[in-house]
Structure to design on (608 residues):
């Protein structure tokens, strides 16, 4: 399949047009066809290992997630299907649901036996809803009954207490449209929306469950399903409620994209890659977005192009379990070979007509390309820092925790780092943790564990964590331009306890990292090998060392990450004065910031 020509007049940043999206969708769909079962009921993609749900569930996952891509492709073309995608999936619907639960070549697993099937039911139901005139309405009555019977168990309460509640909502929305069990479907919708309401913290941010788990699930699940359901149902009441939340989230989400198109890799399920573009498309589709049409396409096309050019597909054209290419440390146990195709959500923009300004307006620059920015995502305890000279994005984490995070437990690299960027780490496995402050006990670094946010302001964020029983660490970040002030107040540690601050894990081809001791650390800066990261092999991380003194010990450093050529030392970017627990920072441009750690120590986390 030939690659469409670039259009640098319409798309000066990426060169990509709607034709590139259509061609990419077709190519992804054609390349999975050799792995379909005889009746097209399953798509068994090759991979290094099955998910914890087993090979049959993985085959359903490969089918359901590529079906969603086919549905977006065909619905966006108003039923035109030059690739004959829907015919194959129609056959698969019949074969997979004829006698589900059988151990044959085509049958789908039952939800009662395989909870992962509940996740896949959402993609199937959404695909059916989008293509109803061209697929569902043309199925025979027996197949429709089979499919409905298979979908109905998804209307039960969710067995997993997080974004899984929205899978039942999505199935219910389709069944309502199709006139099947409408009262039960309505009850499922109400129950699902009530549950996620418990996790909405304002300003467009949900926690993905009862812990403070903030990540890309905000964009590709917690906003995606309710807003898209409201749009497809024509429910203006729901859209008036959830649309403004999406708009507020997009006001932050757009700052997470590098000038090169990469989203910040933080949290889990990063193998979904360009699904990160789903929410911006949804905002444009529903009219609930702060982004112009040209900025929306620039973001989405930049992301798809980034992964296309960085080896997201292998020599067979299959999406791999990784970020660029395969990267096993990134993959959760629930993921199998078909899992990366949740990236199909990123093609939501195909539902916009070709004449829509999102396809016809010239691309506009991203925030990371326009100006240096420091922006707080207050409910999540996150602080984003971008620099226009290199288009690089850094995310400082003072509030996001893995849902199962507990003091003393092993840290999840996607949640427990103090900082993430679009061009570095995180380090994994036995390598030293990057962007981490630790006490060293018998040579072993403590973990961060869950962090409690203390404050998030225009240029700062702070948090509290407990690395050891009876020991507290109050951590704070101030950011300006490419410079970062990192401060840690250690409370209650034994006298003479060694500590270590690490910086950014940079690969040989990546940006330059700097780390400079200001207070409490020894003057020498060491370099630690931190191995392969999702950016590539051979990363190295700078580190500072010190020791505690007295019941309260303060450690302060300056850090920088930049792709600028020949950058000045970070020590030239700020002058820091330490007066007890009050820090005064004078940045290179003459502006001054104050950080009062004593004031932060007095904050009652339970009152936040």
């Amino acid at each position: 399949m030939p690659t469409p020509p670039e259009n640098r007049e319409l798309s000066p940043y990426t060169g990509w047009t709607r034709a590139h999206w259509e061609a990419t969708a077709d190519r992804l769909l054609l390349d999975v066809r050799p792995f379909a079962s005889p009746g097209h009921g399953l798509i068994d993609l090759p991979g290094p290992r099955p998910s914890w749900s087993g090979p049959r569930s993985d085959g359903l996952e490969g089918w359901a997630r590529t079906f969603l891509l086919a549905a977006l492709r065909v619905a966006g073309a108003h039923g035109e299907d030059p690739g004959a995608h829907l015919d194959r999936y129609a056959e698969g619907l019949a074969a997979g649901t004829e006698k589900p639960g059988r151990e044959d070549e085509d049958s789908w697993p039952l939800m009662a036996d395989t909870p992962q099937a509940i996740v896949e039911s959402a993609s199937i139901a959404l695909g059916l809803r989008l293509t109803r005139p061209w697929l569902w309405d043309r199925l025979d009555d027996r197949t429709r009954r089979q499919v409905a019977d298979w979908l109905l168990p998804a209307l039960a309460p969710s067995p997993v207490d997080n974004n899984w509640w929205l899978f039942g909502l999505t199935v219910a929305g389709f069944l309502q449209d199709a006139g099947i069990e409408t009262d039960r479907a309505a009850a499922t919708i109400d129950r699902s929306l009530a549950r996620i309401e418990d996790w909405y913290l304002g300003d467009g941010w949900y926690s993905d469950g009862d812990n403070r788990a903030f990540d890309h699930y905000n964009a590709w699940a917690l906003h995606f399903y309710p807003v898209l359901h409201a749009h497809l149902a024509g429910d203006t009441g729901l859209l008036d409620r959830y649309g403004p939340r999406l708009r507020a989230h997009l006001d932050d989400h757009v700052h997470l994209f590098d000038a090169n198109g990469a989203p910040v890799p933080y949290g889990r399920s990063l193998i979904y890659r360009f699904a990160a573009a789903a929410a911006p498309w949804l905002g444009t589709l529903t009219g609930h977005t702060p982004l112009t049409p040209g900025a929306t396409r620039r973001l989405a096309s930049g992301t798809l192009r980034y992964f296309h050019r960085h080896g997201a597909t292998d020599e067979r054209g299959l999406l791999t379990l990784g970020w660029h290419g395969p990267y096993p440390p990134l993959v959760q146990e629930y993921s199998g070979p078909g899992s990366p195709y949740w990236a199909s959500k990123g093609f939501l923009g195909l539902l916009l007509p070709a004449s829509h300004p999102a396809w016809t307006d010239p691309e506009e620059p991203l925030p990371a390309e326009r100006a240096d920015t420091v922006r707080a995502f207050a409910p999540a305890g996150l602080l984003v820092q971008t620099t226009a000279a290199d288009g690089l994005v850094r995310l400082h984490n003072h509030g996001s925790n893995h849902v199962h995070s507990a003091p003393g437990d092993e840290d999840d690299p996607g949640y427990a780092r103090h900082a993430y960027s679009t061009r570095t780490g995180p380090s994994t496995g036995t390598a030293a943790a990057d962007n981490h402050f630790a006490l060293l006990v018998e040579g072993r670094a403590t973990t961060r564990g869950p962090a409690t946010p203390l404050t998030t302001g225009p240029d700062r964020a702070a948090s509290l964590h407990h690395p050891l029983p009876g020991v507290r660490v109050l951590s704070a970040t101030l950011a300006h331009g490419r410079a970062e002030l990192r401060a840690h107040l250690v409370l209650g540690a034994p006298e003479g306890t060694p500590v270590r601050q690490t910086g950014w894990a940079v690969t040989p081809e990546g940006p330059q990292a700097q780390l400079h001791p200001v207070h409490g650390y020894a003057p020498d800066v060491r370099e630690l090998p931190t191995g392969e990261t999702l950016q590539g092999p051979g990363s190295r991380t700078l580190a500072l060392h010190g020791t505690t003194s007295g019941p309260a010990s303060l450690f302060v450093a300056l850090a920088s990450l930049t792709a600028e050529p020949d950058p000045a030392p970070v020590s030239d970017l700020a002058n820091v004065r330490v007066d007890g627990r009050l820090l005064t920072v004078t940045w290179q441009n003459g502006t001054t910031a104050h950080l009062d750690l004593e004031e932060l120590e007095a904050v009652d986390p339970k009152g936040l």
About this structure: The CA atoms of residues 56 and 104 lie 10 Å apart. The two ends are 55 Å apart (CA to CA). The chain has a mean pLDDT of 97.
